Amino acid sequence: MESKLTQQNDLQIYAVKLLSVLCPLVYFASYLTRKDYSIVMQAIIENEGLLKAQVGQVEALAVISYGAGQIISGILGDRFKPQRLIMGGLGVTILCNLLMPATPANLRIAVWFINGFAQSMLWPPLVRIMAAVMNEKQYNTVCANTNVAGLSGTIFIYLSSSLLWLRFFNSWALTFYSSAALALLILVFWIIGFRKLKDVPALRFEKSAKEEIKETDKKAGKLTLKLLFGSGFILIAVGIIAQGALRDGITDWVPTFISETFTQSSDKAILKSVVLPVIGVISMKLVGIASNKFVKEEVRGAGVTFLGATVLCALLFAFYSHNEYVTLGVSALIVGAMHAINFFLICVVPARFEKYGVVSTMSGIINSLTYVGASAGVFIFGKIADNDSLGWNAVLTSWIVIAAVGAVSCFLAVKQWKKFKA
Predict the structure, then answer these.
(1) Cβ-count burial of 169 within 10 angstroms (0-12 exposed, 13-18 middle, 19+ buried)?
(2) Which of 266, 404, 399 is nearest to 331 (CA)?
């Protein structure tokens, strides 16, 4: 009996170690095959003579698809084996990336819309897998590392596109092909890895949600409006939307912002904009450490971070025209703050619903809200920038307002959330 328990403990430790590699790899692949379009948007605009709003619409609708798909993925992730959802989602997104360069401009919106839905099958199942196998400290660490891996994928795209594919081959298409190739390799690793973990009890996910409820709490597995309102989640949702709008809206449009404001080619603007995900990586690593040692109130932490971001947005508005490196630096700090908020609200908050049996569902809803904000930000910022009477000054003003709204909503939710967690 003791030998069997020791064997199970060893298998559990092995599972945590292997998943600490596999989960970040999947999210690295996710960002490779999702962010590549937004990073080469300016190159597509220059090569094909399209309007910013036209190109931005493809990304915006893909983000809507991704966000809506999160809810479906979240529900499915609580009812079926999440590892299979991840395998299917990654397979479809690889295919979409291979098709994108050969697709006519007016049909790319359809391919990237499908890609957005395929991408939605990755994060909620990942959260369920991590929550099922890991304790709170392990979960926080691996969740932070998984997000760092995603940002690292963005950095890889920035560097490979600007230093290789655009500079030497003048081809944005190669960005999609290279992303698909790496994602395919990671998909193979994922399949092999889960075969090695087939005997881990926590990863079998063989019981239905109803069977699990009978063994635990009859109230578990049900997501009600009373639960959402009583926890303060409705207010938190406003902060989640604001975070998504600023994180993706700023990240996607800064290369174009730099290119137009300081009259630079797209490859140079993309290369310089790599500072955004680099700061994001640093931010995510720091917040991952802080969450285990210092920050115990994630919603309050998000509110304080939003407040700092509001100040940074105001500084950017005041000084952006003076120096491109100041503009890049402050923009990167704002995006870094959004990644910290992302950890608090998108990684930690859904795990608090574990006792109700709706971790994956909540993760899907929360990530969906993130991309409601992201799709709105990407599209609206592009429309504002295209308007000669508004331009980038109006875009920067909107960033200040959005950050302030995020701060207020989080601070208002603190009291209810604290009672919910108790």
Answers:
(1) exposed
(2) 399
Question: What span, in angstroms and rounded, lies between the C-alpha atoms of 378 and 309?
Answer: 18
Residues 90, 94: Cα–Cα separation, whole Å: 6
Helix (H) or strand (E) holding 173: helix 173-196
Structure tokens at 203: 């990863």
Structural domain including 356 reads: 2-421
pLDDT in tens, 75-102: 887 778 888 899 999 999 999 999 998 8
What six digits make up the tokens of 171?
């081809």
Question: What's the predicted TM-score (pTM) here?
Answer: 0.74
Number of residues that make up the chain = 422
At 163, the pLDDT band (50, 70, 90 cuts) reads: confident
E strands, 264-411, are none
DSSP of 375-408, one letter per residue? HHHHHHHHHHHH-TTTHHHHHHHHHHHHHHHHHH
Instruction: Kindly list the distances between the CA atom of residue 374 and the CA atoms of 130, 162, 272, 314, in Å, as whole numbers in the listed order.
Output: 25, 24, 22, 20
Closest CA to 200 of 365, 54, 22: 22
Assess contact for 92 and 116: CB atoms under 8 A: no
How many C-beta atoms lie closer than 10 Å to residue 114's C-beta?
A: 16
| Number of separate domains in the chain | 1
Contact call for residues 100 and 196 (beta carbons, < 8 A): no
What is the average pLDDT across 358-365? 81
One-letter amino acid for residue 252 of the chain:
D
* Residue 124 CA to its chain's centroid (Å): 11
pLDDT digits 0-9 by tens, 304-330 = 999 999 999 999 888 877 788 888 888
| Cβ(165)–Cβ(179) below 8 Å | no
The DSSP 8-state label assigned to residue 295 in this structure reads -
9 token code pair: 């403990």
What CATH number is associated with residue 225?
A: 1.20.1250.20
